[in-house]
Write the structure tokens for this entry.
Amino acid sequence: MNDLFFNKIMHKSLPTVSTTYLPFRLRLLAILGNSEGLNLEEDVQSLRKLGNIVEIKLLEEPSIKELYRILWREKWDILFFAGHSDSEEDLKTGSIAINSQESLNLQQLKFTLRNARQNGLKLAIFNSCDGLGLANALVDLRIPYIIVMREPVPDQVAQEFLELFLQKFSKGISLHKAFRKAREQLEYLEHTEYPGATLIPEIVQHPTAQPLIWSQDPTGQPEQTATLVWWKQYRKIALATALLLGVVASALAVSPYSEFLCEPLGNCSVRVTERSITKTLGEVTNLNDAVQSIADIEETLNILNSIANKINTLAPENQVSKDYFYLQTTVERRLEKEYNNQQLLKETEKIAQQVRDDTNQYSTVDEMRMAIRDLLIARQKLQTIKPDSLFYSQAQKLQQNYDSRVEAIEKEIAERCKFPVNWQPRC
């Protein structure tokens, strides 16, 4: 890469970048899905504040048939969804809960959404949790712009972002700028109730999409063309394009446009790794709660060790990495504790066996008192085994056995002491 390379580029005709304008009075389809545990009324109010510059069609918990029908029969500029959603582990697609009984994977809507895009759909907004998989599915369908929430999102964060974004976008600010400003204004939530709030909203752009603006001209605003003439900016674009060729090629092997999903570049692979590790951690946690033996604990630890290489790809401050090491430490400590409890049972059983061997009808009172002392020491050791231990029930039974044995020996001593003899020590 040198100046000669850029000089050759410079002498070629400069590219043009077109701006796409949404109509002054646009059509918005708002799907309100399963609202269990959510307050969707705030979302509706944010939409209604747009007033007469938007024609809104509200679908509250529609059936699958109803949703398909309205997407095919009518044209929409913006698609909006609020409710519950989730993404697949590989982030290639996701599902939306359109009502309390039914969920739809976006792959089931691919022909419908492709038709909607051909009929003018420019923007899809999903004010719902865990939306990266939804964005990936839609960008593959060539939807120009998608706004999603990266992770599970609190109601207040989602509602505040939606209202701020719509306020700015509807006033003619470009889509990207309106998104950025709305996200930046969530900063106050980061310092109060929701750390990381500004990082949750995510905008995804299809690589062929043109800049998008909501027209402020009631007569209708055609697409306008602006020529890029700033040489430094063009040089920067050319350099970035050359450097990214290899990265984009590898991304296309997974999904035609998946690398355009995440900012900064490479964050998608981190997300996939995080999701895979989080799933494994959940499985290990369930196994750790249900273990029946030391071998089970060893198996859970082996599972954790098997993903150590994935953990090494994450930054130490990454929350998933912290969760991993916390769980690993918890399992290791539990395994060590159970090893110790198992050894303690063996030691106390050995003491009890020695008492059985040393006490008989010929034992002296002193020998029997020594046996009681040993059994009480063994019993005291067993009391250190807590209820959450695998060996708690066994320890309780042994304590009861030792108590019974102590009681029997004390009775024997009492009988012996009823008839003192010269050779018997004083009772």
Remarks:
- The radius of gyration is 35 Å.
